[in-house]
Amino acid sequence: MRLEISGVSHRYDQVEALRDINLTIEPGEIVALIGPSGCGKSTLLSIIGGLLKPSEGQITASGPVPDGCLNPLTYVFQDFALLPWRTVAGNISLVLEDHKLSKAERAARIDEVLEQTGLTDFRNAFPKQLSGGMKQRVGIARALAVRPAVLLMDEPLSALDAQTRILLLDEFAALFARTGMTAVYVTHNLNEAVRLAHRVVALRRRPGTIKEIHTIDVPIDQRQEGDPLIVAHETSLWELIRDEAIAADKELENVA
Amino acid sequence: MSLDHLDPVKSMNEPVRFRAVGFNPRSNPLAAWGSFVVLIILWQIGCSTGFISELAMPSPVAVSKSLWQLIVSGELWVHLAASGQRLAVGWVLGTVAGLVVGFLVGMFSWARSPGVALVSALFPIPKIALLPLFIIWFGIGEPSKFATIGFGVFFPTVINTFGGVDNVARNLIRMGQSFDMSTWSIVRKIILPGALPTILSGFRISSSIAIILLVAAEMIGAQYGIGALILSAGSLYQTDQLIAGVVVLSVFGLAISWLLGRLDKWLLSWR
To answer: Does A83 contact B181 at a Cβ distance shorter than 8 Å?
Structure first.
């Protein structure tokens, strides 16, 4: 599915969060949005999926969706957003229950995504019993269960410890390579961006505008930790946003 | 505390003192029951020795006898049934109405400000002061008692319910919306369970309020009921029966609190 972001601007009261963003995300492409805090990257992701109404501009989605797609634009959240009173399987079932699926179809989908994310043995566990990495795998499984056309991932690894992050990063890379999924991946971690994205969009802050777009030509499943080309991209992206990050760090919070 | 506690440290040559002492009360069921036993023994000793006059405070033995009388004569069950029915109907009416209004106030802008304003204005009114009005509106019989209890339960339930709805994590609601869940599904599967812990803890408060209002209402116009029993015993200075009635009320309250505890365990097992 192709996503066209045209002329999107957004203001929160006094603060201009985004100004005139134009960007097209091609089918099968992984686009990473990076930038320091306050650059509007999460705001843009919320706008893309229709969770926030932009002050100006619009998003157009076009093109075919996968078979049995129930929710073309599907989020994966930083804080997992799992219902603590439902089991792993129950959390996945939640997003299928509003759709016209037979009991057997629903069960089949749940089994399938549990299998894909390695959660089969955890299907009856409650979220509080799971590690952060397992919780995010449930978040991924829930997203896959609706057969999305585009995954919208809002800092999905930011709440995890460093080791778990490395493991899940590999799983994401494998998932994207296997499914050819379209995805928008918001992160402040440059390493994640250069490992997963075909294009990395660096945003500038106050107001949020596109500063530069990096295209990384290495296929995602061939990228290795420490690959010189990937490291070079990471370094140059850091040069690009370093000053912005320093400014963001020194800023007093004046937004409620 | 002496001031030398604050003297600057000059040098050290001693094992490190353990400092994180106290501030960690633990519960002890034996001590809980023991405190009752000790109190009753002291009370009985006071009465037996004449330290406490029989008129001022009947002895535990006298109270037990009187309670036994009520049980064997079957009188107690009549009173308990009347009170239990009033309590159940009044509490359920007030709770259902309170939950509905609480959810509306918690979820819709149009209900928010009017709802909060009205509840804030009406909550502090002692409902017992309105009992004469309820009697005029609903008659001297049961409905005026249901109304007293119901109104008393209604307001705290509203406040508690919309507080619980407010406290449901916004990110869960957004998650539901991002998967295009219907509003009704979001209410039923996300907001209701999310608000349930707060709502259930509110039941403890509203059930105590209901017992207080029950007794008050029964003291004004009722033939049967624990409140009526206590009132008639009091007007005849049968203090043993009066205390027996109070004991029954206390046990009644404990039973309800135990039931609510079971409800908590059952509904909130995921916590």
So the answer is: no
Domain assignment of residue A72, yes or no: yes
Q: What is the predicted ipTM?
A: 0.87
Alpha-carbon gap: B198 to the closest alpha carbon of chain A (Å): 15
The encoded tokens of residue A145 equal 């269960």
Number of domains in chain A: 1
Q: Is residue A211 part of a domain?
A: yes
Could you list the beta-strand ranges (E) of A133-248. Answer: 150-154, 182-186, 199-204, 209-215
For residue range A54-76, list pLDDT tens digits in order.
888 888 888 888 888 888 899 99
Query: Quick check: B178 and A84 CB within 8 A?
Result: no
B185 has a chain A CB within 8 A of its CB: yes
The reply to whether residue A94 touches residue B177, judged by beta carbons under 8 angstroms, is no
Read off the CATH number of the domain in which A60 is found: 3.40.50.300
What is the residue-wise DSSP string for A115-134? Answer: HHTT-GGGTT--GGGS-HHH
Domain-located, residue A164 = yes
A211 neighbors A204 (Cβ within 8 angstroms): yes
Nearest Cα of chain B lies from the Cα of A147 at a distance, in angstroms, of 12
Q: What's the pLDDT score for residue A256?
A: 44
Instruction: Domains for chain B: give ranges and CATH numbers.
Output: 60-267 (1.10.3720.10)
Task: Report which residue type is found at B76.
Answer: L
- Which residue from B172, B174, B182 is facing A83, i.e. has the nearest CB? B172
A77–B contact, CB cutoff 8 A: yes
* Cβ within 8 Å, pair A49-B270: no
Residue A171 lies in a domain: yes
Instruction: List phi, psi (to 5°) of B262.
Output: -65, -40
Which among A85, A95, A126 has CB closest to B179?
A95
Q: Using one digit for the tens of pLDDT, what is the confidence trace for A174-189?
A: 888 888 889 999 988 8
